[in-house]
Design goal:
4 copies of one chain form a homotetramer.
Chain A: H1 32-45, H2 52-59, H3 63-69, H4 73-89, H5 94-97, H6 103-119, H7 121-133, H8 138-165, H9 174-194, H10 205-220
Helix pairs in contact in A: 1-2, 1-4, 1-7, 4-7, 4-8, 6-8, 6-9, 7-9, 8-9, 9-10
Chain B binds a DNA duplex (21 and 21 nucleotides) through helix 3.
Chain lengths: 234, 234, 234, 234
DNA sequence: AATGAATGAGCCTTCATTCAT
DNA sequence: GATGAATGAAGGCTCATTCAT
């Protein structure tokens, strides 16, 4: 990609007959300002309500300039989403494989590093955006699911399994437990995107991260019989 | 046409071969049907991407008919949101006041009744919609926040306080604990709206509701010192 | 209408192959309220800006009722115009033929009778309406021109000619003189329709009618050389 | 494209067979062209019946271009009217103040200069349009009345007063006399807008202007007793 | 490369017209 | 006959996209 990527936009100038890749990378010169501005605006307004004029204004360029780097609004949307997803993907999956210490410490570290990523305002916006536009852009939803959700789930699932194998937490249904870890945080960061300005008690995110993790740890310890007080009444 | 035109809505229920009347006069049921169709479409597409033609088609009426009941797209949106919010509001706040039994049982009951409401697909859609359009319709966000969020928070806060007063759960920061109860469920129902179709492990909602509640109960019991294994490392 | 006027709207139910007359008369039962209401509204708003709902409301009937008497908006327009034109047409042309007295008296009488007709507010509106919609309804313009303008011109032309033949007024270009008689009055009645409410010096119509006629008589007397003071300077 | 693209607007003046550019960048001339086209169309059809598509076509631009210069149809209407009114306003009021010669000559000059302005086809259209749309756009009517009618009346009123003071014409009710001067001309120019094409005796405007002025002069001279032949008979 | 004037397809909205009641 | 709920074609307006500069 570095040597001779032509800047031409014509999709047929590459290998004729080949299908143009959907997630085509553009020249490095592509201004990050545009992607950032686009992401912000898409998050705030949604895809349909976003005017390219506003994106351009926020990026400090003219409307026409957007088309020098993106062939249309949809591609700009996909690129912005994809670009935002990348940091998610490079989260440290690999370092878990060889880790030797206590699984609970590993869990905490994975949790905190993941939380640090999704706590970034951009990531809350990304999550909101994917949820919001999933019906209109199923391929974006699929991409996000495959690249982010599945990996995150697999990461926490493997750590949880280690914890259970080591007897540090009791046996849990893995799928539910993984969601239990991530769901409240994801909701919080999405919430911040939309409702925080109307919230008279805005969330103290770091405190909540800590509170949440402790709740889980306490709830999942091995030395306690689950469900001793009240049972499902249905 | 005069003798036996049934008032049924099904166009094929009349005698086959007869000309189906182009429309029926149904002044009373119209608004609900329209609101339902509108809500569905707004949830799926968002406000801007929703075409009134599609709403009309789903409601089984023509475009113009919408304007007999709603003066424009925005009012239709607001009405649809408001109409969907109502069931939320009438959740049983009052019965908590005079309740005499164990606070934990009360907590479980409130949780389950609340969960039953938000688990309805429409409610997941409503939540997603409010989050999606909060920036474009701040007054809708405020209305939702005041009428739904605040009441729900207050409801669970008062129950939690009773639980803590009764020594059934340890002292918790109320605001965080309330969120801890609701956030995962809200995330789950929103998720179902958008990503469940791409999810290879779709969520078993009732099981998750139960799992979540038990996690909380175990985590919040009084007989355990919190945070004994790992502490915040920052 | 009582005996056998079919109320059917189908134009082919009359003599087949005959062309349906453009200015077809409808049953006498046709409510005058509708025509009056239509005329008023058309005058105020013009054809395109007139809503049949407003016409119906003014006439005290429902929208659908209009279509029992007029097949569409254009026909209602044409009928209203035509109905208003009729009083114009029956002005006393015939009595001029046999008149024996002084031509000047005849002129004054014709002037006053004509003025009495056009001074009616409805007639001012009609004139305004024809001028307004002439481009959109050329056949209405032609009808008005043939039935009203030409007859009025012919009437005054013949009287003026008698006056000149009798030596009561000097020789004038007939076409210009006829316009000189009618134009100011027509302008005044049109003006009243539109601008009088904003006019801080509303016109005293009877006084103006008299003033105008006297100006003409003085200006057209035989004993004076025309144009003695100032000539055309171009 | 670089070598010999002439800047001329005529699309056929370029080399035949070359592709004509789809549009030219003409930011300065656009508004006038649009206003001219709009004025024409509004005069012909009235406000409501005017389609912006037709205005755009006449102006040689697309629908969307209109919105680069005018925020909506109403503003286009108001701008077109206002722009057309300007020439009216700048009529030479000031030169009358210091004029020294015969008041009658001054009257004739004012009359001819004013007639030259209103005789322009655009002005006839303007007058027709204001009369037509006064009910729908009262503020336009007020503006026209204040800026045009009042000034014109004041102009002729002051001259007439000089004439009467100088004994050149007899004492007249000023308001009526002013209308007597202007009304026939205004009617004629409005008439031309709508009915002239159906008129078998189209008006010779210069001849009529002259005829009208002479009629007035003869009718208003001082040496004649008014109303000697016939009196009001009512 | 960058700009922004110009374009026109598409959608919201109105209202003449129809037709079940 | 009369009504007015329902219809859908038409037109105002927006905004993604193009392209002359």
């Amino acid at each position: 990609m570095t040597e001779n990527t032509p800047l031409t936009e014509s999709p047929d100038s590459s290998a004729a007959g080949k299908t143009t890749p959907r997630w085509q990378r553009r020249p490095d010169a592509r201004p990050e300002e545009i992607l950032r501005a686009a992401m912000q605006t898409f998050v705030e307004r949604g895809f349909a309500a976003t005017k390219l004029e506003e994106v351009a204004a926020r990026a400090g360029v003219s409307k026409g300039t957007l088309y020098l780097y993106f062939s249309n609004k949809e591609e700009l949307f996909r690129s912005a989403v994809q670009e935002s997803i990348l940091p998610h993907i490079q989260s440290g999956e690999q370092r878990i494989a060889g880790f030797q210490g206590s699984p609970l410490v590993l869990l905490r570290e994975a949790y905190e590093r993941w939380a640090a990523v999704v706590t970034d305002p951009l990531m809350g916006g990304l999550c909101k955006l994917v949820v919001t536009e999933a019906a209109n852009f199923p391929e974006v939803a699929v991409f996000y699911f495959e690249q982010v959700i599945k990996r995150t789930r697999a990461l926490f699932a493997s750590i949880l399994q280690r914890c259970m194998a080591a007897g540090e937490i009791r046996d849990l249904p893995i799928d539910l437990a993984v969601r239990e870890i991530t769901a409240p945080i994801l909701f919080a960061v999405m919430w911040r995107q939309s409702m925080s300005q109307h919230d008279d008690k805005p969330l103290d995110v770091p405190a909540y991260l800590d509170f949440h993790f402790n709740t889980l740890l306490q709830g999942w310890r091995t030395d306690i019989k689950p469900d001793s007080h009240t049972g499902p009444q249905k």
